[in-house]
Write a structure and sequence with these properties.
mainly beta, 4 helices, 6-stranded mixed β-sheet, about 325 residues, 9-stranded mixed β-sheet
Amino acid sequence: MVFGLFKKSKKKLNDFLNENKEKVLKINLNEPIDCICDFTYNFVWQSSFDYNQKVVDGISFKDLVEHLKNRGIIYIKGNVGHRFCSSMGADLKYFGGTGGKIEVGTVIVDGDIDTRFGISMVSGTVYVNEGNKIKEPIGNIVEVESDIKGYKKFISITEYIEGRHKNEKLLKPNKFDKNYNLILNDKIVRDTVGARLNVDATITINGNVDLSTGILMKKGTVIVNGNAGKNTGAVLNGGTVVIDGNTGDFTAFEMKNGTIIINGNAGKFLGAKKKGGVIYAKDGAPVPPTKKYSLDKKDKESLSKYGFFGEFYKFQ
């Protein structure tokens, strides 16, 4: 995939829009609206969300998503609500997709953004006016050096690791090295870190995270030096999630494969609807089919590789 080389000079927004005018769709919002450019349409399979309803006259929620799938550019003037660009770039099976990732377009925002911007985002680019605010928690996104003057640039953490790091410059204090280790030091609270990751890389977060860390991962490791929220390791399908702290409830919800290590309390409803994989935690309240077991020698050896010893239990 080609995303352009690092650029020292920045374009003005109007120049960028004029150069790409055939791809640009402009909308003006009078008030914040949730789920704009949300590829799940507010998780439509479990809600009554109507994606054919209009965001503005003549343009529906589905129109916006389809425009991005066609690699178009959406320019938004006004504040946007919650779950903006949720699962952007995910080729969802519910809608007949592969379950993988697709290349998508660009969104530009002149306005504030409410919580959960970019949850489970796996591709695409979002520019946000430097004068506007982004409310935490944000999603699976990280800021990189912008090529448009006066705008911050955000891309998917997953996409950055899986290849886009070659063409995008990560901003300090975050770091990335040649061994595919991404270290997030910015203390920004995020949901869904590492969503759908499918390479042998390590993401280390020095600070707390919120919902669904490692969701739908197949490969790689996410290490959180802090506490995590609900649904940690939800639908994990490989790889390892390590929380050096406590997690909220529903850890390992519908987990399929992989390993979750909680150096603390894993909360209630642990392993609900779990199908495979293993959980290690110091405490937690499992629900069937997940049960609590003492560690054997192999379990202790597995934990020692991550520097953990002492009183852990296995939940399987």
